[in-house]
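Example 3.2
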Amino acid sequence: MRKYLAPILLATIVFWGAILLIWYARYTVASGEKRDDFAGVTYGYRIEQYYVWNSMKLTIWEKHGVSYGMEAVYDLPALTVDKVVEQRWLKNDAAIYLNLQIKGHDSLVTVHPARLVYDFHRSEMYTSSGFTLWRVWNEKNKSEDWMSDAEFDAVLSRLGK
């Protein structure tokens, strides 16, 4: 029995390792990166989707050399990118504009536009979407006071559409 224990243990580890690798495997839908040589800063974004489950991940980062930086990761369950309509750098490459068609995988599969601007200089994100992405209900006023399409367009114009 002992002579079979090592191969069985190895096969079990390989099997579960493969399952985990497949479960968390993802591919890049859209990405971009810029470098400011004067400041020694690299910054960018990446949108990834998982192969096995309907979910996407948005990562925004800024690195100062190799020692420190910022990374914001947004896991968006039950959402995938149906189509990248547009991706464009704004404000002398200091902001990224993404126009996406997002597919929701709740009880009813629907596709809505989702527009996003991330300003790397100010660390500010602006969104406009049919889904409730990054929205917080205002309990005090009992209202939905998230950004309208007109407000988003004004931000886009200010940053140099």
